[in-house]
Amino acid sequence: MNAASANRALVVTVALLLVLAVALSFDSVWQRVNGPPFVLVMTPANHGAMLQFVQPEGSGGDAEVSPLFLVDVELDAPAVRVLNSGSVEVPGGEVEFHDMTITPGAFHLRFGDDLYRVMESRVEVGGVSYEWARQGTDVDIVDSTQ
Question: Are residues 72 and 127 in the same domain?
């Protein structure tokens, strides 16, 4: 092997090591940016069901919750669904849109005539925006059946 071949081999090796280092750094950053997906919690109520969205790692790193929404859905037992794909079965509802590019993602869920837009920054229902609250704090109850 002559000097020119040795230099080329060294350059290729260094380039491959740099690509590997960048890839590993990107993966580490990606894992920090991506948090766990949203969770939907539904419980039976007198006239329908109560639903609440949970963001396991909110803006401050603590779990955050949406208001409680009363929906016109017959529910016999509590249901918990991890919103991690468009094929999640939602009792009495359906997933109309999902984007899991960067988790926790974004979801549009329909219950009857109401569309729930679940995003990292807020939950929107009927054009009204609801902020996330730290888990364990008092939250509003919104009657979506009227």
Answer: yes
